[in-house]
Amino acid sequence: MQLGMIGLGRMGNGMTERLREHDHDVRTYDPNVESRTAASLAELKSQLDAPRAFWMMIPAGKITEDTFQELLSLADQGDTIVDGGNSNFHDSQRRYREAQAKGLNFIDAGISGGIWGLKVGFCTMVGGDVEPVARLEPVFKALAPPDGYAHVGPSGAGHFTKMVHNGIEYGLMQSYAEGFEILEHSEFGLDLHEIAGIWRYGSVVRSWLLELLVDAFEQHGGKLEDIAPYVEDSGEGRWTIFEAIAENVPAPVISASLFARFSSRDELNFAAKVSAALRNQFGGHAVKASGKS
């Protein structure tokens, strides 16, 4: 099947290679990559047979919106635009309506797999109308491992599902992080690399994330000492919490995991200063000097 891939970053490049390995004809556009087949979206269009399929694999936000609007003006009736990035599902629903108004199809595809997807496959969660999804199903199935693809619902459902997936990921990662911090501070001098290793086999907490943690220990000398304690977030955890609030669904673990990421970025944690000052005021508890006058 023929496809135009827009964006050849870590995910887009791996997806392009995987599709080509499954004998799909993938033409590419990325202004920052030499290996593209097209130098513009217009040229990419000229390389594709109608009805065309354009796949955006670029960061959510302005660049996705700008690319989508350019495709709206370029594409012909019956063409399909797929957004495989981590866009907010509300934006995807709006883009679906805008595409429909011009006789175009729009599909939102939640993609999970990271840099390992080329080798093991990308879990693929698709939202959109039945006909265009069915037409592109060979592409979705080629990207995914066996049983790793589903048409999860109408427009927006793919990105909504991926959003919640990433919210769960936040909670899982934070749970491992806290557990290993407790192990690290224990009196026993534990070998965390070894413990993570044995937990992969037979333990009820075994998972792919744990396997990746073992790899991280191996790559960083067993102690992770060269990694700064700073954890970024890309938005999906926040969106998951917003939707939990809107639906009156309690999500304390995901919420706490997001706040822990915020805390990791605050080298001068003013809240901790307030708590320390109050303990000193009401109980005479000692405070540590900051080293700054």
Describe this protein's structure.
There is one protein chain. Helix content is 51%, strand content 12%. It is elongated, with a radius of gyration of 23 Å. Strands 2-1-3-4-5-6-7 form a seven-stranded mixed beta sheet, sandwiched between helices. It has 293 residues and is an alpha/beta fold. It is built from twelve helices and seven strands.
- Distance, first to last CA: 66 Å
Spans with pLDDT under 50 lasting ≥5 residues? Answer: none
Largest beta-sheet details:
7 strands, mixed
Helical content stands at 40-55%
Order of helices and strands: EHEHEHEHEHEHEHHHHHH
Mean pLDDT: 93
Helix vs. strand class: alpha/beta
- In spatial order, strands of the major sheet run 2-1-3-4-5-6-7
Radius of gyration over all CA atoms, rounded: 23 Å
Distinct helical segment count:
12
**How much of the sequence is in beta strands?**
5-15%
Give the overall silhouette: elongated
